[in-house]
Amino acid sequence: MAAERYTYGLGRRKSAVATARVFKGKGKITINGKPALEYLNNNKAMADELEQVFIISGKKDLDVTIKVRGGGPSGQLDAIRMAIAKAIVTDAADLRPVLKKAGLMKRDSREKERKKYGLRSARKREQFSKR
Asked: How far apart are CA 121 and CA 118, in angstroms?
């Protein structure tokens, strides 16, 4: 596996960061050393969402190894999808418009707002009392 040629992609979402290496192969997806379905706790909906990248690009014959850290399941999944899409575009630039139109190339920059002192959460306040 050391001599194999791969393309690299980086994806981020919320506080999750994913790096993807895409190889020519049979369509095997490995996330943090585990098969994708096992890593996603056998969640078929999340697995289908992950497969979207390959369906849209038409590249089902790729092996992918992913390292992801930080964030929760949904943030990690979006980071993984972006990383795979970027890696595919590195190898096949003609797929960029297709993946961009599907929304897989754009970073979703929304993050949790920090809590401020004197408030219950980021913006929630105590109920105002005039008297």
From this structure: 9
User: Residues with Cβ < 8 Å from 41, sequence gap 6 or more?
Assistant: 73
pTM for the full predicted model = 0.87
Q: Give the separation between CA 79 and CA 69, rounded to whole angstroms.
A: 10
CA distance 73 to 68: 10
Per-residue model confidence (pLDDT) at position 3: 57
The token pair that represents 127 in the structure block: 């109920």
* CA atoms of 12 and 109, how far apart (whole Å): 9
pLDDT of 26 above 50: yes
Distance CA 122, CA 105 (A): 29
Say how far apart CA 75 and CA 16 lie, in whole Å. 6
Rounded to whole angstroms, the Cα distance separating 105 from 117 reads 36
